Amino acid sequence: MNIQDIHNLFLQCGSLSIDTRKIEKNSMFFAIKGENFDANTFAKEALDLGALFVVIDNESYFVDERTIVVKNSLETLQELAKFHRSYLGLPIVALTGSNGKTTTKELINVVLSKKFKTKATIGNLNNHIGVPLTLLSFTKETEVGIVEMGANHQKEIEFLCQIAQPDFGYITNFGKAHLEGFGGVEGVIAGKSEMYQYLSANHKTVFINLEDPIQVEKSKGIKSFTFGVKNQNADLNIQQIEANPFVIINYNDFQIESHLIGLYNSNNINAAVAIGKYFEVQEADIKSAIENYIPANNRSQMMQKGSNEIILDAYNANPSSMAVAITNFLQLDKKNKIMILGDMFELGDESLYEHKVIVDSLADQKQALCFLIGKAFFANQVSNENIQFFETFDLFAEYLKTFNFNSNTILIKGSRGMALERSLEYIS
Length: 428
Description:
Strand content: 15-25%
Number of strands: 20
Largest sheet: 7 strands, parallel
Number of helices: 16
Low-confidence stretches: none
Distance between the termini: 60 Å
Helix content: 25-40%
Radius of gyration: 23 Å
Structural class: alpha/beta
């Protein structure tokens, strides 16, 4: 059975799933092998749960005529997604970057949805499996698709672009993320820039932040739509930005008052405004979309617990995002500030050094009490009355049982694996 035949069967289905726990009636189930399981073993269960067809790559688990046997289920999923993308022919906006991808993707989506029927990556399904699943969620009714692409090694963005075939691209930034897989910052720049190479080779359009010299340099010669702050040469000139703590931007006599915290989120907003302008979304609709966007999922969430004001940014962290979050927090016009910071993962040989840089940056500040949690921070502990170190979260939790939070402003930030949102249980 060729990919077109499989696509014809896919079009008969209402959805596609790789997880029998989330299977829907009349869906197509793909049996994708994981590190600790073989999804082929769930083929019969998927059909019993209501799937119309199952795709497997181990014929030992063939059930009946509803079973499609392929050489490799994952590769077939990717090929099907590429075929489906070409079949639909809709414009696709793709984005990648070290920080801010998901927030920017959500902002672009709310802006463009004011004019178009859009569909975007759900959550952070942005890898070699998530991107195909995103593309296969698009239908004939979808007018613009928005695809987030993540990567932790070189050639990954190139591969995802070959599947998604974006018409437009945006790179949020080039930061110190996934240094272990990319082989350092230069590797990050090379890896993320694979999107520029695809857009250039296929004569597509890139959105460029003129404040970022790497974006400007790497996108030379590509058709572009630009934005910048107080830059008359930009296609979108942002006149003013402020954040205390929420970001406000001014452009073209419009003021947008967002629910996003920190100057580091201003570029995410600016990009969404620029893309909205390019797609000719009405100014008032752009303003309304961004002002009504409320961050969730532990990403720059502002919340109140008792007398305490909390900035919860515990979804992820790397040296670049951690540094700007700390800088922004220390600049806030607030009293009784506390930072709860957790280890940053996937830094490889640079891990201890990058954690030391953060510790050193906190050594002389007097504005906030700092709690640093995790083995990498603990390995860099120093004697400082404003910094306390805890090797594990459990040890920190024991300490928190004796700590009285009262009218504090608190920043919580760390890598996903640290799950620092657990700290909220001890704040009242």
